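Budget justification, computational time. The allocation requested in the original proposal was used primarily to generate structure tokens for proteins on the priority list. As evidence of use, we reproduce two of the resulting records. The first is shown immediately below.
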Amino acid sequence: MHNGLDQKPYWPTYCRCTSTFEGSPINPPTRLSPTEVFHRRTARLSTVRTRVQSAAGPLLFSALPRRASRKLLLKYVRFDEARLADVRVYRAETVGDIKAALTLLHDVYTTVGIIKPNEARLHVTKYNALPTTMIFVAKKGDRVVGTLSMVLDTDLGLPADSTHRAEVDSLRAQGLALAEVVGTACASEYRGSGLVLYLYRIMVHSALRANLDRVVMRAAPKGALLYEELMVCQRLGATRPDPLLNNKPFAALTLDLQTCADRAVRRFDGLVPYVKTPHYYFFGKDLPQLEVPDTFTVTTQRREAVASLLCARHDLFRSLPTNERVYYRSILPEVDFSCLLPSVPI
């Protein structure tokens, strides 16, 4: 029906693909083409399928016989030899390598919503800035395409203390030498190539050479099963949100460095050929491009890198509690903290 002002009629229309009512007394509703309807419905089905798989995946694996589920999980262990042939993996020491690693980490973490972006484009924390933290990089030519950090337990503790303090303290009470794996990231074109396992392998061998007993790591709940089965890790407490990482939920795990090699052999013995097992990729396969460090002393280059990180993210370090700023000053006496941390007691 038209009114006296000759306005367009009112068409109340229910749009099933958007689940909203459209239409107004002024403008008619926007009609979607069959192609647009198809794409919207396909996207919604894909979202539902992903959510169901994320929720039901661990239940489905647990319902299978143990050997069958492990054989299925081995499909996640794959390497693209061609893409990884020219990649060099080593412990970063220079300012350039460390900043490139933390820039990659910043970009990946902001993309998935773990952290908020910052102007410096560096994911610097009070843990990865420590000179004792080992930052490993995977480098293709002059470009860092992957990174992983191993934080040694110090007076500042470990990142997992924010969610699993009681469990980590129980390990400390046993007199175990601890470290935590954090900050794992790969460039988009290297995801699914096996590069992450290269990074974990150099971490494991470096931890063994450093005479560590246990490595703590945290993972998204849906990924924890891979760590438990493929890396023979053990759960450490319940899944909890981390307030320092946008309240994302994390499952904590621990890797017993003294027994992991033997356990990996027994777990997959006779299940598949040895060259397809995690033990082969972590301990048996010859990977000359992985340069495991021989010594673990803090070099002058590493200290210079710490000073550079302090300058780049001085806002972060100014916000640290007094006792933590004092600790930084005690381990880095050569660094001038006067302009960065003016409130640190002398």
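The second record produced under the same allocation is shown here.
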Amino acid sequence: MIILSKQTIYEMTSNIPKKPFYAMTNYLYLILLIFTLNFLFPQQNIFCEDTQLLKAELTSKQALLTYPYNKGKLSFPRDEGIHSPTEFPYTIMEWFAFYSHLTTEDGRKYFLFSTFITYDPIEAILMGQFPHVITTFVDIKNSKTYSYRCQKKLLRFAKGHADIKAADGNYFKWKGEHMPFQYEYYINVKNPHFEYTVDLDLLMIKPPLIINGTGYIKEPKGTSGYYSQTRVKTEGFLTINGVKEKVKGIQWIDRQWLGASFVMNMNYSYQWWSIQLDNNEEAIMFKIWDKTTDTVAMTLLEINHANGKREKVEKFTLKELSTGWQLSAPQVDWNLKIIPACKNQKIWKACTISGTINNKAVKGVGVAELAKNIGKDLAKFH
């Protein structure tokens, strides 16, 4: 999840040499382009929840998880591919984000965040000033974090299905129409004193969470297409400094595409959490701040239940603790503690989760994406 404010744009680009006049001209041109697209292609009323969808009973998971898969206003594999700037919501930016919790055969735990971002059709205007690949790798046992970003334009972001390749060789791609919701995922990062490679096979094992029931939401003003694949089985290999090991785990895939109207979110920032529990339930949660007033402008908590049914939680509290956060949601009787798994993590923090649901003990893993100052923090990545 990403919200770009004017301050974020400044912080992300402030350490990149540029000619001031041209930088300002391009920035103003970008804003003008976005407003023009929003004026020419006004909002459509597709945000109401699909009540028939919410009432539908899930029958066979195997039958459901095939292509084409339609839910809300979305269709797969179509919405796994790039979106057109000439069709609602008139997309100017989109990405996949991956949150991987990995365990070696001897029990050592690692966390990897990565994202592939495209700014088509405004790449030429941005002149390489924004990252297209971001990764954060966390060695949980040793409390070490390694961060990376690549400014170069993606080589490929395919239409109609998932197939992305970055300029640095990293990629994410489907295994084909006859292997629905199965993917290949590869990340290799080299630093002067540290190199890692993650080479994984991915399999989505329950229906995706279609945000807002339709797959479109205002956050809080600009339009975003949004779904999350909340339980993805993960198997493959992790190589650290030449030592290769088998790993297994669970991944969360977050998918968003931002419409031209997202320019109205220029004064907002956010924090975001994912929750993956051992009872086969997951949840997405976020807060969005109005930076002009330093107040919360929007909150969201949606659950993907064990049977694949979505539930929106209307009222909940998230209390900040010295060690993490306490989530309380009486509507669903959730009482959970979310605690960072180790020290020295940055924007993307692997977390452990424990607590009760309907008075039954649960535990799990999660991620806290603390992005109130994401522009300043990203400027420190190499």
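A brief technical remark on that second record: Residues 41 and 239 are 47 Å apart (CA to CA).
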